Amino acid sequence: MPVISIALSEDDRDSRAQLEYALPFASKEIVSCRINDAASTIEVEVTDANATATVAKRIQELLDRYSKGAFGFAKSVDFQQEHNLPARDTWSELLQRRWVTPVGEGHVILRGPAAELAGLIDYKIDRMFADRFQAEREYYPATILCKSLDRIHHFTAFPEHVDFVSHLQRDLGIINQFSEQCNEKGWSPQLTEGRLAENDFAICPSCCYHCYEGMENWELEPPGRCTTISVACHRYEGTNHRTMSRLRAFTMREVVWVGKPLFVIESRAKAERLIVEWAKTWELSGTLETANDMFFTDDYTIKASFQRQQQAKKELRLQIPFEKQAISVFSSNFHAVTFGKAFNIMLGGKPATSGCIGWGIERWVYAIFSQFGLDFDKWPDAPREEFHAFQAETRSRKI
Hints:
alpha+beta, 3 domains, 8-stranded mixed beta sheet, BirA Bifunctional Protein, domain 2, Alpha-Beta Plaits, 399 residues
């Protein structure tokens, strides 16, 4: 297949993570793409030589969009811990042991010790975070109204990763035809063409959105309230779905604060100290650092620079030695009054402030196995002992 090469300037390196994420969305003709550091180029494999000019133009548009902004991309590292880690092909090992099974693009099933480790992560979040902040447990649906996403400008900031939900039209003829054709030939995407109802829901792209829409028009008591939730979320990310580093369907756990600014700010700061304590105790290799969301908009540089300057987003990024990268497994976010205004959540006659912390459960599982391996006897003392204790307690309940 044809390969095109596009020059990468020094300024572009500041937004490298955003570029790597966004490149697959430039065109459906892109088969693969990578950044060649030695040559300072982006190398893109395309399906057809006739598409090279169009693909090159669209990639240049992305380069222009993500070029360094006027505010700069400030970086602050609050915590860093490194250990000498071997480069294990953890993904292949997990598949071989059948602890993980892919069931479609960016979808996986966890079982056995992988599922138990996911359970331990969720249990530890309860004990270390939710209990300490006296968070109220809430349960949310996996889908969310499109009009709610529109009110918080999700479609303008992250249009590329929304998975919409629909159903067959309420028409007996259409339903019968669909059923009969599936019975005769088996299902195919073409059978839904012209037969689906209008979209009014999407799968939740983020855990906390329901929290805010569920408090619409509330007047809160000071200092505010804290909730905790776990939701099966979806984000379509093109060819970025590789291993368990970036899944399309994943489990997000959050603790959310809505209330007075000081209540939210101090709670978030305490949570960041706790996540550092967890990383130190478990001897995890990674950093807690300023970050920005992967905005897919023309004003990316303004939004991303602002987030970094205000330290509105921080991430715990854990090393994946075999992939030669670090992945975000935890984020700490300050929203100011964005959601308070959007849903008229008030406190003392003013829009409430909000913030949240979130864990990607499958990413935690993958990062821990990538760093420590699949032989629990070789793990550091703290995570090994906690895992075996959780495993024993869980199994004893089944007897």
